[in-house]
Amino acid sequence: MKQLLFLTFACLALCGCTSLPKNPVKSDSWPRIVPDYIGVTIPSDMAPLNFYIEDEEVDLVDVVVRGNKGDELHSNGEYADFDIDEWHALTQNNRDDSLQVTVTVRKDGQWTAYKPFSVFISSDSLGEWGVTYRLIPPGYETYGSMGLYQRNLSNFEQKPILENKLVDSDCMNCHTPNRTNPGQFTFHVRGEHGATVVRNGSQLHVLAPRNQDLGGSMVYPFWHPSGKYIAYSTNQTHQNFHQLRDRKVEVYDDRSDIIIYNIAAQEIQLNSIVATDNHLENYPVFSPDGKSLYFCAADRIDSIWTQYKDIKYNICRIDFDAETGRLGESVDTILNARQSGKSANMPRLSYDGRFLLYTISDYGCFPIWHPEADLWMMDLISGESWPLKAVNSHDSESFHNWSLNSRWILFTTRRDDGLYTQLYLAHIDADGKASKPFRLPQQNPREYDLENIYSINTPEFTQAPIDIDEEQLTRQLMSRERISTSLRK
């Protein structure tokens, strides 16, 4: 590697195609890099952390990355652009140790060498091939061009799973796998070609978007670990608009209940204990052992728009019998957020069953538009809860999920510009403490920031690429054929 670095420097000097630092002025501060990767913890199999300098007057960036266990690599150009193979060789050789990154920039003909910063390479592997997410413009009443995509986390390859231009621009949302399994997933399509799609191994079912007896559609899903059931909420959702600078829109439910879908029987179970008239039940999540169902619940309010700030959710739990598909007879309150005047949403349990990750906001059930929304962690053994201070920012954090080995989380946040939600990842140690998060790397981050017009939404980890016949699925969605579901109370 050192010989390769020497040859790279020699080639650059001979060809005259760029310039190496000369007589740099040393600075005691860190460089202002975008994204901010200073002091982050990453897995060894993550794509290179390419970055650019925030100062637009900088015309050349020289970066040397040295591993504490040896080897180094070099980048010289308009931004830090690392070779993927060399990057992975360096990170693999320095697991459980740090990389030292030295940045030198040229501005107005003068070079400045900044204080080196560290990037820690965790010995905890990511264990996931990639992520899936929805790309959607940050619109309100209309949703325009959008799609479901998958991204390889070890490089920069992104491919569509399904784009809505193939189904007359209908809305698509909530691609949800079973424990990051690419062979089991579900997502919902709204609009003229509305449907709930369920992929279960070799079987691909396109369900009617609504059950005639139930009335509502199948929204926020979560798989039972056995793969036999999917819990959905069924929601009557509305949105209104604020005349406040930091409050653009409020999304709320007039009504919401929890339902359990039996995949083999194509049957929806409606249990009155989680489908009440006086409560709003939302965001169902099965426990990793499959014996419990967690969900959010709030008191239903008659004048919901004038009293929307009074809607505050607790996190609850109820027993679940996987043999019969039946829920228990009593509900336990796991987290009483209303006692502190807050609202708890989007519960996600680590797959080892130890921790519960959730969002706290001032009110409501849709924290993506709440700047105060933060991520919190609960130790399910001790019952202790705490904010993830290393992860949280001045703007909203939401739509979070765990890697299968329970050592990494992903989430979306508006911290960068307040408008577009971006995907961040963070390491979680054995005690549930989080490292400084890092933004999903992009091959050319400056170009991405200048040209991107999409928010990343509802992200999930995936163990492997999703292999699906896009043409066949498009034909099924464009047809009028749908599988009807029966209702059992």
How would you concisely characterize the structure shown here?
With 489 residues, the chain is mainly beta. The protein contains four helices and 34 strands.
Your description of this structure?
- The protein contains 4 helices and 34 strands.
- The model is unreliable at 1-17 (pLDDT under 50).
- The longest helix has 14 residues, at 2-15.
- The strands form 8 sheets. Strands 1, 3, 5, 6, 7, 8 and 9 form a 7-stranded mixed beta sheet that branches. Strands 17-18-19-20-34 form a 5-stranded mixed beta sheet, with no helix packed on it.
- The chain has 489 residues and is mainly beta.
- The protein has helices at 2-15, 84-93, 445-451, 470-478; strands at residues 25-26, 33-34, 41-43, 52-53, 58-67, 72-77, 97-107, 110-113, 117-122, 130-136, 147-152, 158-163, 171-178, 181-190, 195-200, 203-207, 221-223, 229-244, 247-262, 267-270, 279-286, 292-299, 314-321, 326-335, 343-349, 355-361, 374-379, 385-387, 397-402, 408-413, 422-427, 438-439, 455-462, 486-488.
- The radius of gyration is 24 Å and the shape is globular.
- 8% of the residues lie in helices and 45% in strands.
- The relative contact order is 0.13.
- A hairpin with a 5-residue loop joins strand 25 (343-349) and strand 26 (355-361).
